[in-house]
Every structure is written in structure tokens, then in C-alpha cells.
Amino acid sequence: MLQHFRWNLEKCLGIWCLIERCRTMLGLNHSDQLNLDCSVTRKQKNANITVAVEGNIGSGKSTLLKFFRKNPLVQVFEEPVTEWQNVGGKNLLDLFYTDCQRWSYLFESYAVLSLMKVHQKPHITPVKMIERSVYSGFYCFEQNLFESGLMSRAEHAVHSKWFNWITKQQKPQLDLISAPDLLVALHRQHEEWLMKGKFPIPAPVMVIDGNRNLEEMLTFYQDNDQYLLGLKTWPPQLQQQAAC
Prior knowledge:
Elements: E1 4-6, E2 14-21, H1 23-26, H2 30-33, H3 42-45, E3 49-55, H4 61-69, E4 74-77, H5 81-84, H6 92-98, H7 100-120, E5 127-131, H8 134-147, H9 153-169, H10 180-195, E6 205-209, H11 214-223, H12 225-228, H13 236-243
């Protein structure tokens, strides 16, 4: 069952967490998941959970990832930026920013492939936390390029087929959680996808207010770490507060 958690989102400063729990590895059914013990149980320590941290540029993703990198239950995987900067000796990221319209299709196609590889990477901890998912790469960034006229209709159609095929062949383990004008456009794409359901949502969504100061954010992460990592299910009263 899909559940959407919204935590006082302010425009352009939201962090979205998509939380996946592999039921087969946990040995749990849906009702069991909703009644997990508050402590970190043996099953949780042996869990296979993926948390995708989505958000706009400058929304605070790096702060969240840095905080959870210290957690022994978590292995963090950042965006494969260095991989984008050296493809056959060429810097695709630099080419893309130099001429978006010329290189958008090539860059986004390779981004889908490299992000899918991150999804498939094994992890030695119960929780794998990744910076952005293959879904936001397509539903937000690629979609924004197409709607902005920086990717042709034919390129968008081909890229859509590529995205749909690769995600079906190697389904990411997510079980359903710049310039100002670019930031606004990307925020709108995230809102359309994660809050309004314009595109399929592969996991329950929790939205965290990114307008808090650093101390408040770190306190929030500390107090709610097991919820954010999918090791505990949000209590009904907190779900109601988050939905406001």
C-alpha cells in the first residue's frame, strides 16, 4: 500500500526520501512491517533496504547523506558524477553544460545507465542510501529538458523507450517513499512526480522541510533516523502530522 508522508514542505527546498524494504529477505509480510519492534532487531540488521534521497539542487541532500554516512547500519552511494566526467576520455557533464540542446540526449541516456548501476550495487549494511534515483533522472531532469525545448520530441520518445526497457529488465529495488529558473522548474518536476503522481511512484514518499537551519536538520535526522532508514514504520499520529 502506498503512503505519502509530507513534512511541512516549503517551495524549492524539499528533500524526498523513497524507502524500499525487501520483504522476502526480511521474512515479513505487510502486516508484520507495520508492527516492527522499536529497537533495531536481528531481522532489521539483516534487512535489505534502499533509501533514495531525492531533491532539488541545494535542497540539503548532501547534509543528509553526510549525517547518515556515520551510521554503521548505512552505506551511502552518491551520484556517479566522476563517472560522467570521464567517458572514453570525454567529460559528458562539461559537454552537457556547455551545450544542453546538443548533448542532452547523450548525457541523459548515460545518466540512466550509470544510475541503474548504482541501484544494482551490492551493500554490506542493512541500508543502502543513494543520492537520487534513476526515476528522478527521467521523470524530473529529462522531462524538464524536453519541456524546455532542449531535447527534441524524437529524442524524448527514444529515451522513454530506453528508460522503460532498462527499468523493466533490471527493476530497481524500490518497493513502493544553477539558475533560479532551473531550480523552480526542477522543483515543479519533483512536485508533479512525487506529490501529484504525474508519473509512477516506486516507493512511499517522505518529504522533509529543507528550510530548517543546520542544527535543526541534524537534530531531526538524529531523532528520526530509524524512520528515515525504513527500519521503523511511522506511528499513526506522526503520519497524520506529516500529512498536514
